[in-house]
Amino acid sequence: MQAITVLGSTGSIGVSTLDVIARHPDRYRVYALTAHSRVDELAEQCLRFHPKLAVVGTAQAAQALQQKLKAGQLRTEVLYGAQALCEVAGAAECDTVMAAIVGAAGLASTLAAARAGKKILLANKEALVMSGQLLIDAVAQHKASLLPIDSEHNAIFQCLPHDYRRSLPDAGISKILLTASGGPFLKRDVATLDSVTPEEAVAHPKWVMGRKISVDSATMMNKGLEVIEAHWLFGAPADKIEVMIHPQSVIHSMVSYIDGSVLAQLGNPDMRTPIANALAYPERIESGVAQLDLAQIGQLFFERPDFGRFPCLKLAYDALQAGGSSAAILNAANEVAVQAFLNQEIGFRMIDQVIARVMDKLPHGPVTDIDALIEQDQLARSFAHSCLSL
Ligand code: NAD
Ligand code: MG
């Protein structure tokens, strides 16, 4: 029986994770659930999964949750704050941590899970993009494991040899083909992009996701972050990671071998497949996802991305090439710009402009430790805020 902490349990990934867990009560039990502010949803999850601990963002939210749980006669202990997230991620009683908080807010708890040697199911790509080698080293040093939940990276993971050791040449791999849907604006006239609303940007044609990642998909910064994520997960240099637009989201990514073979993982676009794969690895379990009907799909389409339409993708490649704290700066500027767009403070095309300005003006340095990283993140955030009104 695996005891699981779900960080960000009220989010899109968190809910899908609990859906898979609920299908296998003989294999998994929930140790802790965490949410930032959605107390009602978290209370319902607690009543259903009976975790030992629940964590929320503030003392006020904790009090509200405690009252609801008391009414349900539940003995779940309620904690709050960033430190509590690290505690439930690293607790001795927990085996597996689903890291599904969105953005940099998930970094400390993901690192805590690594330092405690946990099996980490990584959805929170921003944590890896920011910390890069620091997280990879912590995983190795503390004998933790890092299993990708992002559908593309989970697909690649499934197409790699079982004993893959973070070297493409050693495994006879020529490149990684990272597929991308292209988001809601793949065919929209670029001249009209500045007038798109947050609601149009988050209306993804194939995936139902949280608002931040949905905007990232519309700008293709999501794919840019995924290129950086693939670099760290698989030890792949930037020039060996090729993005391929595949609007149907049936192939979730591919690995190209030197003998001409290309291995792909296919499936319906539903995150419960990668979640079930990582939860049960190396076994296979049912996820609740319908089997793929290829005859109904008929044809699969591909095209190369256009950096002119999607400048954020180019910015992410540039950050990866530059190395050091560049990716953390890119990520911080993106989080600020996306939030400002969602708050209707800036237009859609300002997102890439804010990031480009921050990347251009802020010097990047080596990422030596977590404190230096957080300092760079904070600096990039305050500079990005000052760029919003330009
Ligand atoms: P979401 O917005 O639906 O959920 C985010 C979760 O994080 C919520 O439970 C929320 O309470 C929690 N949270 C938010 N801010 C927090 C804070 N400051 N402190 C503590 N908790 C906080 O997001 P999502 O779509 O589930 O995405 C989660 C992560 O998974 C992201 O990093 C995203 O890039 C990644 N991911 C998501 C999908 C998807 O299909 N949704 C696919 C691949 C990767
Ligand atoms: Mg993805």
Overall description:
- It is a single chain.
- The protein has 390 residues and is α/β, with parallel strands linked by helices.
- It has helices at 12-22, 39-49, 59-71, 82-90, 107-115, 125-131, 133-141, 151-159, 198-202, 211-219, 221-234, 272-280, 294-297, 311-322, 326-342, 350-361, 370-387, and strands at residues 2-7, 28-34, 53-56, 77-80, 96-99, 119-122, 145-148, 173-180, 241-245, 251-257, 262-266.
- A seven-stranded parallel beta sheet has the order 4-3-2-1-5-6-7, with helices on both faces. Strands 9-8-10-11 form a four-stranded mixed beta sheet, covered by helices on one side.
- Helix 5 (107-115) crosses helix 6 and helix 10 (211-219) crosses helix 15.
- It is globular, with a radius of gyration of 20 Å.
- It starts with a strand and ends with a helix.
- Residues 150-152, 226 line the site of magnesium ion (MG).
Helix content: 40-55%
Structural class: alpha/beta
Q: Please report which band the strand proportion falls in: under 5%, 5-15%, 15-25%, 25-35%, 35-45% or over 45%.
A: 5-15%
How many structurally independent domains?
3
Please specify the SSE layout and strand pairing.
Elements: E1 2-7, H1 12-22, E2 28-34, H2 39-49, E3 53-56, H3 59-71, E4 77-80, H4 82-90, E5 96-99, H5 107-115, E6 119-122, H6 125-131, H7 133-141, E7 145-148, H8 151-159, E8 173-180, H9 198-202, H10 211-219, H11 221-234, E9 241-245, E10 251-257, E11 262-266, H12 272-280, H13 294-297, H14 311-322, H15 326-342, H16 350-361, H17 370-387
Parallel strand pairs: 1-2, 1-5, 2-3, 3-4, 5-6, 6-7, 8-9
Antiparallel strand pairs: 8-10, 10-11
Bound molecules: nicotinamide-adenine-dinucleotide and magnesium ion.
